[in-house]
Amino acid sequence: PDFTLPSTQGEISLATRLSDRPVLLVFYPGDDTPVCTKQLCDYRDNLTVFEDLDVDVLAINPQSLDSHERFAAKHSLPFPILSDSSKKVCRAYGAIGLLGAAKRALVLIGRDGKVRWSRSDSPIFHQSAKDIREAITTLDLG
User: Fold this and answer.
1) pTM of the model
2) Is 41 a catalytic residue?
3) Which of 58, 78, 117, 131 has the most other CB atoms within 10 Å of its CB?
């Protein structure tokens, strides 16, 4: 489903982003937690992987925009971090656990708005940029 959410780079509309290129939604449990920080810093350090695939990266969790802005500034994260305070988007994409907490999940949406690939991970593991490249490099991204 389409959505519009506030982010560290202004309001973001999925439909608008998809008009340019496919989008990788990166749902993660929490700002400044060890595994989430490692994951998002890996994506920052390997941003060329996503650029080479012509994929836009959007990170999302239910925390406040203030928290996201501090987290992004502290770690120089170049991609938008979206605040889904109602958890509506997280729920729609299956990124909410049984107890209502955000969970780690990746959802790749093609330019046609269809989910082309998805993956959920344990809270203590994450897919590296290299893992993602290997998983999606041969997909038709619509």
Assistant:
1) 0.94
2) no
3) 58
